[in-house]
Amino acid sequence: MVDNINVKQIKINNMYEVLEHWKVYKQEKELQAKIAKQFKLDNAIKEMDEFLAKIKSKNGTTKY
Fold it and tell me: By C-alpha distance, which of 48, 45, 19, 20 is closest to 32?
């Protein structure tokens, strides 16, 4: 009985931690979006993603 209660408490604590991590992750993503919008970085981020995708697709054979 005591072991069963301890297992339930551990599961509840783990669920609470996951929720807290999710909240922090969501806040960070929202802040990143605000910063990108404020500094008009959306286009620069897309361009960098495209550049990195090209490098990745060439598998290290890109010459500069």
Answer: 45
Q: Whole domain around residue 44: which residue ranges?
A: 2-57
Confirm if 62 and 55 have CB atoms less than 8 A apart: yes
Note whether residue 63 is domain-resident: no
Identity of the residue numbered 33: A
Structure tokens at 61: 């054979």
- pLDDT by residue for the chain (64 residues), tens only, comes to 667 788 888 888 899 999 999 999 999 989 988 888 888 777 777 788 888 888 876 665 656 5
